[in-house]
Amino acid sequence: MSQEKPDSTDEQRLLLAQRLREAREYVGLSQEDVAAALGISRPAVTNIEAGTRKVEAVELDKLSQLYGKTVQYFLTGESQVQDTRVVFLARATHGLSDRDFEELGRFAEFLRSSGKSKRRGS
After folding, report:
1. Is the residue at 40 inside a domain?
2. pLDDT for 79-119, tens place per residue?
3. What's the CATH code of the domain at 45?
4. Domain enclosing residue 52, as ranges
5. Are 24 and 55 in contact (CB under 8 A)?
6. How many structural domains does the chain have?
7. Alpha helices in the chain (DSSP H)
8. Is residue 41, in this structure, part of any structural domain at all?
9. Which of 19, 115, 26, 29 is nearest to 75 (CA)?
10. Quick one: which H or E segment has residue 8?
11. Is the entire prediction scored with pTM above 0.85?
12. HTH cro/C1-type domain: from which residue to which, for each copy (predicted)?
């Protein structure tokens, strides 16, 4: 008797889970950090990275932004040029309290709204 061929959907989900876990570890974020960014529980992140929970499209989009990789990379493994700014920020903010992280977000919003074009010429 021949062995059953693994379901390609399950295989794809496991590869996606592996890429997500590796990307999170690379940028130095904990599962708790990711859970907070997505607004889901840490066990949900654990299940995503184990391939036992499906990733919603909106979540995958947020993860791609958080990790500085394209959605295409997570789905296919196709590499792309990495935005080193995202990696820098992930490492620089690792370990900040929730309150500090929120303050950092407000400061970033302030910088965006206070005339980007003025700073470019400086």
Report:
1. yes
2. 655 567 777 787 888 888 889 988 988 898 888 888 754 55
3. 1.10.260.40
4. 8-115
5. no
6. 1
7. 8-27, 31-38, 42-50, 57-67, 71-76, 84-93, 98-113, 116-120
8. yes
9. 19
10. helix 8-27
11. no
12. 20-74
